[in-house]
Amino acid sequence: MNKFNKRPEPLRLFLDQVRSPWKFGLFQLWKLPASFFSGVRVDSLIPEACVCSVPHRWITQNPFRSTYFASLSMAAEMSTGLLAMAHLYRSTPAVSMLVTRLEADFFKKATERIFFTCADGELFYEAVNGTLEDGFPRTVCARATGRNSTGEVVADFYITWSLKAKSNQSKT
User: Fold this and answer.
1) What would the mean pLDDT of 136-156 be, rounded to a whole number?
2) Which of 52, 113, 162, 163 lies at a 20 to 30 A Cα distance from 120?
3) Do residues 142 and 161 make contact, with C-beta atoms less than 8 angstroms apart?
């Protein structure tokens, strides 16, 4: 039995939209233009894990001929944020999400495309369902590990997300 079956249809719809290059490209261009122009891409997305990558090129470089940490941060954040969005997509009530903390460790120069993997989908699933059930906010500290093409770890990012169900109070 699928562990992620509380809301299977919205999850499937979200995954299909992100996996569509033109739909997600338009979303990125409209809502995340820096990531679009930097070349941040979604390489893989399933309910349990997400892989996003960022290239090393002129627009993402720093003066030391490696990928600028902010460009690496965009790909790392996207790999965690898409997992959160997948599990809260079309939830009732809506769930808001916000980065509240970011920590990073850098181990090697990023001089080629770096692939960030976050395998914390289950943590987001539990947090979203928890806040939907009782209305109390949840936090998730997700880990995104960046590797180069040979599998060497370039950086580890720890991104803390706050998830909170919005109240259903009507506005007067």
Assistant:
1) 97
2) 113
3) yes
Q: Please give the domain boundaries of the chain with CATH numbers for all domains.
A: 8-165 (3.10.129.10)
Count of beta carbons in the 10 Å neighbourhood of residue 146: 28
Helical H segments across the chain, by residue range: 8-19, 21-31, 33-38, 69-88, 121-134
Answer yes or no: is pLDDT of 137 > 90.
yes
pLDDT, residue 6, reads 65
Contact partners, residue 128, CB within 8 Å, separation at least 6: 84, 87, 88, 91, 95, 138, 163
Considering all CA atoms of the chain, what is the largest pairwise distance in Å, rounded to the nearest integer? Answer: 58
Cα separation, 129 vs 91, in Å, equals 9
